[in-house]
Amino acid sequence: MRVIGIDPGLRHMGWGIVDTSGPKLRHVANGVCTSTGQDLASRLLSLHTQLLRVFQDFQPQSAAVEQTFVNSNGAATLKLGQARAIALLVPAQQGLKVAEYAPNTVKKVVVGVGHAQKEQVQHMVKLQLAGVIISGADAADALAIALCHAHHAEFQDRLERAVAKAGE
Q1: Helical H segments across 94-117, by residue range
Q2: How many CB atoms lie within 10 A of CB 148?
Q3: What are the residues whose beta carbons fall under 8 Å from the beta carbon of 157, sequence distance 6 or more?
Q4: Three-class SS of residue 73?
Q5: Is-contact 2 61, C-beta < 8 A?
Q6: Cα 161 to the chain's mean position, in Å?
Q7: What is the pTM of this model?
Q8: pLDDT at residue 70 is higher than 70
Q9: What is residue 23's three-state secondary structure?
Q10: What is the per-residue pLDDT across 3-24, written as a single tens digit (0 to 9) for each?
Q11: For the residues 35-47, what does the mean pLDDT come to?
Q12: What's the CA gap between 65 and 7, in Å, rounded?
């Protein structure tokens, strides 16, 4: 299964793609979509166009997006939410269900600690995806989201097989 993880952001939207085969993981690609334009609408359109190109180029079969947190700046939170809408919209346009994970869940799965630092996340991503060259902090976060989803999907698959076997 090919999984894309997306780290939403209005200026920089990270993406990372991994292939999974049971418990085996392989890095496919990662990068950052950088918004362009003077107004919000054109910046969102540029993110949509770039992320759509990633989907066309790599054909992911499953998608996961990081949930946003609300901070004290309401306007910034609203703008981030709009960028997050692009991160949810593009996979939906491709017919994919989109899983959503809280940042602490991603860190817990990838690092083992829910309040891990960014450097720890990058280190663990590099350990799990040997030889990966990460395109920046946003791409590292996106790869962590993809890894989190891959681990959750593997667990869900094992659970469903165990339940089916028990019902035989």
Answers
A1: 103-110
A2: 23
A3: none
A4: coil
A5: yes
A6: 26
A7: 0.90
A8: no
A9: coil
A10: 999 999 999 999 999 999 878 9
A11: 96
A12: 6
Task: Find out whether 14 and 7 touch, Cβ atoms under 8 Å.
Answer: yes
Per-residue burial over 32-56, b if 16 or more Cβ lie within 10 Å, else e, is bbebeeeeeeebbebbbebbbebbe
- DSSP strand pairing (98-101 vs 12-21): unpaired
Cα-Cα-Cα-Cα dihedral sign, residues 157, 26, 142, 96:
negative
Query: CA nearest 22: which of 157, 123, 161?
Result: 157
DSSP category for residue 64:
E
Strand arrangement of the beta sheet that strand 2-7 belongs to: 24-34, 12-21, 2-7, 62-66, 98-101
Looking at the annotation, which residues are catalytic? 7, 66, 138
Type of residue found at 122: Q
Cα 53 from Cα 61, distance rounded (Å): 15
Q: Which amino acid, residue 17?
A: I
Tokens at 46, concatenated: 């540029």
Please, are residues 107 and 145 in contact by the beta-carbon 8 Å criterion? no
Domains and CATH numbers, the chain: 2-167 (3.30.420.10)
Length of the chain: 168
Q: Where does the pLDDT of residue 122 fall: very low under 50, low under 70, confident under 90, or very high at 90 and above? A: very high
Distance CA 157, CA 23 (A): 11
